[in-house]
Amino acid sequence: MSVRASTRPSIIATAILVLGALYCLLPVAWVVVASTKSAGELFSTLTFLPSTHLLDNIAELVAYRDGLFWRWMANTALYAGVGGALSAIVSAMAGYALAKYQFAGKAAVFNVLLAGVLVPGVVLAIPQYLMLAQVELTNTYWAVLLPSIISPYGIYLARIYAAAAVPDEVVEAARTDGAGELRTFAQVAVPMMLPGLVTVFLFQFVAIWNNFMLPYIMLGDDRLFPITVGLSGLLNQGASQPAMYTLVITGALLSVIPLVALFLLLQRFWQVDLAAGAVKA
Amino acid sequence: MRLTTGTKVAAAVAATALLATACSSGGTGGDSADGEAVELTFWAWAPNIEKVVDVWNSEHPDIQVTVNKQDGGDPAVTKLLTAIEAGSGAPDLMQAEYQKIPQLVSSGALADIAGEISGELAGHFPDGVWNAVTLGSDAVYAVPQDSGPMQFYYREDVFAELGLEVPTTWEEYAEVARAVHAADPNTYLGTFSANDAGWFSGLTQQAGASWYGIDGDSWTVQIDSPEVQKVAGYWGGLVEEGIIDNKPMYTPEWNAALNDGSQVGWLSAIWAPGVLAGNAADTAGTWKMAPMPQWDAAAPATGNWGGSATAVTSQSEHAAEATQFIEWLNTDPAAVQALVDETGIYPADIPASTAALADPPAFFSNQPDFYELAAETAQTANPFTYGPNINVAYSAYNDEFAKATEARTQAAFLAAVEAVQTATIEDLKNSGFSVKE
């Protein structure tokens, strides 16, 4: 009897979790409902009363400047996809090296890395702009991709994961069998680290997808904008213009759909990783 | 061939740069070999301005302009100044609000185009507007595009229902505000917005204030002048009495209040019809425009809120072509007509605007003489000087008046004026400008 009582969910804990869920889900629900309203209804009808203008709003958004919205979506996909993948590769290499090799200055490198985890990326945007301006790479796709590739947190995670998931014995065995270092890394270590690398990729993908400051400072050409910077521009057209709330809300709704889809698809890896971390780290 | 590490790095950088050029669809100032079109980039935020630029591009195959839409106002200025600081990345052309021009000039961001413009250009614009792009010197830093003379907008139907007269003085404005609020405690004639420094500086401009001045080689700051004190004290009194709302403008809440009739008036500028049409579509045909309430009915005056010019940046390699384009954009009759039709601005150019503004805006079709009345009020705009750190003054305004509107006392409004003055002078000195107190 007492055992059953202790496994029954506590009412307080459940209430806190429900509150947390509401806190996260209400804004999403608001965006979904608001995107179905016309501009006139947006601030005048009941907040959570849906309307019927979703398709009109999407059509208007798509028509804005000959479909510039899709270009922004494609840009964001490119920045997040390519940036996330490159970042995962670099993190895997650096993390593996830090976990499995002994070399002079290893502790120093790792400490710098830890310090890097603590520096928010926003602070680096302007110095990065000034550096890239010297090699004339600002206002190009590279301006957003290059700074996104190095993720101290990703390298840190990959190091922890390589130390836990790749036994030294396996690396030794591969070497004994005559595999070169690169081959050992690519064909032995990477498959074992894969769930951790998916986590690194997802973290970085989401970070780039939501990033505003870096592309905002780097890019002048509105055809290179990611969705975040593009939508912000629709809200800031000067005091003499009404803000295009309806378009921005609809755009925000459409822009999270790929993120939700990606999470659902990669959820399996995500769970594996959390469990692995709990036991091994 | 055996490559040294240095050569390899150089080659890699070069290859990356090539790739970069291939990737970017429109870098700054494309190279113009003989016979090739000059390519200009243009940072702007006026809606649909790219459609006006398309007209130019189809008529001028040798000078092609690409519009890059930016976040309006402060963000675009910050971005431009970062690019100027970095030495590359600025566009050839920039939409610049009048109040930002001193700051841009003192940062070396704008090119002096006095040598490129045609002689009669100055005659196209009202003196006050032209002064804003020359800063009273022989240089010319931009060509004016639009201006924002202020007027009073009100719900004609509500005024008729309550039997109210349109206020012509600020004293009457206070009485009408009292009557509107007495009839329905949820309804206000207007709001004092701590978010809109440009609106407040326009109100003080009407009262005869000028926030900055030039004394010899030094700047002066007069934000705590008696005129500004008078305006701040007046509004502080209305807010303290509770007959004027204390919420900021341009919020969803304010939009809803305009739409559902709990805000029945708006002290705004000539571009108000576009904002009202966007935010309060349900109220079409119920608004009317009148001149601003006056401090001195015998000497009618107004201020400006908004308005911008088009400038050539100091990084442009094609200043002559860029100047040719902005002269066309802002003074050619066809271009001005297109600006009015496509972007809904009130053009600064006098000769072309009469024809372009024959009909009232659609939202004010109930007021056929809308633009005639507007032109009369525009002529009464007082002179005003902006300084090189107006951004600091404006953000101090936001901070200090946010506190004052929260406190809801006249004393807090007057204290806020002092605080803005202090913050502005301090910053001006710290930035190395010579300041006379």
Automatic annotation (TrEMBL), chain A:
Membrane-topology descriptor: Multi-pass membrane protein
Domain ABC transmembrane type-1: 73-266
The keyword Cell cycle is annotated on this UniProt entry: no
PROSITE patterns hit by this protein: ABC_TM1
TM segment ranges: 12-33, 77-98, 110-130, 142-164, 185-209, 243-266
Pfam families on file: BPD_transp_1
GO (cellular component) term, any one: plasma membrane
GO biological process assignments: transmembrane transport
Xref: InterPro entries: MetI-like, MetI-like_sf
Subcellular location: Cell membrane
Signal peptide stretch: none
Keywords in alphabetical order: Cell membrane, Membrane, Transmembrane, Transmembrane helix, Transport
Family (UniProt): Belongs to the binding-protein-dependent transport system permease family.
Name of the protein: Carbohydrate ABC transporter permease
Organism: Antribacter soli
Taxonomic path: Bacteria, Bacillati, Actinomycetota, Actinomycetes, Micrococcales
Automatic annotation (TrEMBL), chain B:
UniProt keywords, alphabetically: Signal
InterPro entries: Bact_solute-bd_prot1, SBP
Signal peptide start and end residues: 1-22
PROSITE patterns the UniProt entry points to: PROKAR_LIPOPROTEIN
Protein name, entry field: Extracellular solute-binding protein
Lineage: Bacteria, Bacillati, Actinomycetota, Actinomycetes, Micrococcales
